């Protein structure tokens, strides 16, 4: 039986590849969630008027990829101290959020966030929110698997994130 996990951490282009290469990942979809406009478009989300954030929805086999491990991978792809976006991606549509789909996921995410806060790895507070999952809307097809479709543009978008990861993890 598969499960779904939803993570927001800046541009969804940069959130696919780290999960896509892991065992037990069945599918990953770029999309929008957390807002109040049904079926938003990319342009609407960029306008900051829908309340949505860019996110990825991951379908996974919990026997091969436990949710705890997905959360660990998530932390290593974000700056959990920046509530106003991620890296060069600024605004509420790029805020870091773990959207839980079950009560167990909520407990795991909260425990993991607390451990990260207590680790001393960051000098600023951990501001990533943990919220209940709401409707997830898949992004337009050209956003799906972007790192494979346009590797040069993906590398440009990913450069600052990659430097942060290298320095902090």
Automatic annotation (TrEMBL):
Quote the catalytic residue positions. 11
Task: Alphabetically list the UniProt keywords.
Answer: Oxidoreductase
Q: Give a Pfam family name.
A: PMSR
- What Gene3D superfamilies has UniProt attached to this entry? Peptide methionine sulphoxide reductase MsrA
Q: Does the keyword Cell inner membrane apply?
A: no
Give the domain of life: Bacteria
Q: Which InterPro entries match?
A: Met_Sox_Rdtase_MsrA_dom, Met_Sox_Rdtase_MsrA_sf
Q: What is its EC number?
A: 1.8.4.11
Which reaction is catalysed here?
L-methionyl-[protein] + [thioredoxin]-disulfide + H2O = L-methionyl-(S)-S-oxide-[protein] + [thioredoxin]-dithiol; [thioredoxin]-disulfide + L-methionine + H2O = L-methionine (S)-S-oxide + [thioredoxin]-dithiol
Residue ranges annotated for the Peptide methionine sulphoxide reductase MsrA domain, each copy included: 4-155
Give this protein's Gene Ontology molecular function annotations: L-methionine:thioredoxin-disulfide S-oxidoreductase activity; peptide-methionine (S)-S-oxide reductase activity
Major enzyme class = oxidoreductase
- Does this UniProt record's set of keywords contain Zinc? no
Q: HAMAP family from the entry? A: MsrA
Biological role stated in the UniProt entry:
Has an important function as a repair enzyme for proteins that have been inactivated by oxidation. Catalyzes the reversible oxidation-reduction of methionine sulfoxide in proteins to methionine.
Annotated family: Belongs to the MsrA Met sulfoxide reductase family.
The name on file for this protein is Peptide methionine sulfoxide reductase MsrA
Gene coding for it: msrA
């Amino acid at each position: 039986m598969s499960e779904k996990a939803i993570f927001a951490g800046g541009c969804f282009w940069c959130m696919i590849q780290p999960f896509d290469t892991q065992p037990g990942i069945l599918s990953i979809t770029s999309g929008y969630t957390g807002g109040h406009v049904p079926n938003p478009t990319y342009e609407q989300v960029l306008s900051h008027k829908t309340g949505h954030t860019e996110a990825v929805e991951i379908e996974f086999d919990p026997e091969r990829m436990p949710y705890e491990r997905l959360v660990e991978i998530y932390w290593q792809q974000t700056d959990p101290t920046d509530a106003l976006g991620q890296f060069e991606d600024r605004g509420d549509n790029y805020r870091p959020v773990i959207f839980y789909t079950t009560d167990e996921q909520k407990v795991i995410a909260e425990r993991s966030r607390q451990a990260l806060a207590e680790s001393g790895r960051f000098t600023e507070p951990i501001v990533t929110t943990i919220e209940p999952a709401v409707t997830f809307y898949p992004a337009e097809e050209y956003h799906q698997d972007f790192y494979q479709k346009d590797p040069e543009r993906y590398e440009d978008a990913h450069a600052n994130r990659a430097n942060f990861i290298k320095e902090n993890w």
